[in-house]
UniProtKB/TrEMBL annotation, chain A:
It comes from the Bacteria. One of its GO terms (molecular function) is metal ion binding. This is 2-oxoglutarate ferredoxin oxidoreductase subunit delta. The keyword Membrane does not apply. PANTHER family: ADENYLYLSULFATE REDUCTASE, BETA SUBUNIT, BLR5484 PROTEIN. PROSITE patterns: 4FE4S_FER_1, 4FE4S_FER_2. Keywords: 4Fe-4S, Iron, Iron-sulfur, Metal-binding. The keyword Lipid metabolism does not apply. InterPro entries: 4Fe4S_Fe-S-bd (IPR017896), 4Fe4S_Fe_S_CS (IPR017900), Fe-S_Ferredoxin (IPR050572). Residues 6-35, 43-72 form the 4Fe-4S ferredoxin-type domain.
From TrEMBL, chain B:
This is 2-oxoglutarate ferredoxin oxidoreductase subunit beta. GO terms for molecular function: oxidoreductase activity, acting on the aldehyde or oxo group of donors, iron-sulfur protein as acceptor; thiamine pyrophosphate binding. It comes from the Bacteria. Pfam families: TPP_enzyme_C (PF02775). Keywords: Oxidoreductase. GO terms for biological process: cellular respiration; small molecule metabolic process. Residues 69-220 form the Thiamine pyrophosphate enzyme TPP-binding domain.
Length: 77, 255
């Protein structure tokens, strides 16, 4: 069976920690980090990377366009 | 598994990245502001239609006054509310260009009501993008014409009272009545599905301009989480519960 796996890359310096991507993610991949960026915002990161399907919902709702999404089809047995 | 996830970050697996029409400047908007999403959607439409070199924007007065720092096209800055008048001149002088205005509710529905209504009534071949968040965001959250009944702002701290403050203005419905408008719609950007719909609406508006159909108005019901004194997630929820019943989403006119 084929399965989609995805991954995101967050531009942590541009992220303002608004958490709109956190609620937009259907598989609860994203969370806000305990660490802060140069402006003092808790930036978004992949807390549960295995669950990502690369659906791009997070990137679509991101107001600061700081999420890049990758997706690949893999065969699983 | 971690290796697989790092391994898929290759250019052939790229499915979504920031469009080149948006500059690399960090936006000055508050965290979670709808302006950022609308800027992105607009830039993506310009990119996909391949019209970056032939698009002219008119920047408003309001939070989006610095939009020319973020979208890499040619811009004009209008006096407060006068964006449709300026866009009229630009489109008449350069009919080969795509011309649009980007305005907030204070700009379009308060000080610029006359310019907006007359540009639409003349059927000027322009696109008007209207951000409606029911408040004056830039100046500190005062009451706007579009503020809902009972909504608290800095200048109506006990809630908007229609007998004293007047009724909220549904200007988009008003514009849909005018014969000059070709496409009038109301959208939002609170979820990924809504963002996709808004993108389609903006694209359609630009295509109407290409076909010389008349004025297109795309209203986007937005949040102002700083002005509403809510977190970005709470603001989206508040908008769904309070703004959408009064400002229902959907197309009002499509000719």
């Amino acid at each position: 069976m084929a399965k989609m796996i995805g991954s995101i890359e967050v531009d942590t310096e541009k992220c303002k920690g608004c958490s709109l991507c956190v609620v937009a993610c259907p598989t609860d991949v994203i969370a806000l980090s305990d660490k802060v960026n140069g402006k003092g915002y808790n930036y978004a990161y992949m807390s549960n990377p295995e669950a990502c399907t690369g659906c791009t919902n997070c990137a679509l709702v991101c107001p600061d366009s700081c999420i890049t999404v990758y997706r690949q089809k893999v065969e699983v047995v | 598994m971690a290796e697989v996830i790092n391994d898929i970050k290759r250019s052939e697996n790229l499915v979504y990245a920031k469009t080149k029409v948006l500059t690399d400047n960090v936006m000055h908007y508050c965290p979670g502001c709808s302006h950022g999403v609308v800027h992105k959607v607009l830039a993506e439409v310009i990119d996909e239609m391949g019209i970056q070199e032939v698009t002219l924007g008119v920047a408003p007065v309001g939070c989006a006054v610095l939009i020319y720092n973020y979208i890499d096209i040619d811009w004009q800055e209008a006096a407060h509310g006068r964006a449709p008048a300026l866009a009229t001149a630009m489109k008449r002088l350069r009919p080969d260009r795509y011309v649009f205005t980007y305005q907030g509710d204070g700009d379009l529905a308060a000080i610029g009501t006359a310019e907006t209504i007359h540009a639409c009534n003349r059927g000027e071949n322009i696109v008007i993008i209207f951000i409606n968040n029911g408040i004056y965001g830039m100046t500190g959250g005062q009451m706007a014409p579009t503020t809902l009944e009972g909504m608290k702002t800095a200048t109506c701290p006990y809630g908007r009272e229609p007998s004293h403050d007047g009724n909220p203005l549904k200007i988009t419905e008003l514009l849909a009545q005018l014969p000059g408008t070709a496409y009038v719609t109301r959208q939002s950007v609170h979820t990924a599905a809504a963002v996709r719909k808004t993108k389609k609406a903006i694209r359609k508006a630009f295509e109407k301009q290409k076909e010389n159909k008349g004025t297109s108005v795309v209203e986007i019901v937005s949040t102002c989480n700083s002005g509403w004194k809510l977190t970005p997630v709470e603001a989206n929820k508040w908008m769904e519960e309070n703004m959408f019943p009064f400002y229902p989403l959907g197309d009002m006119k499509d000719e």
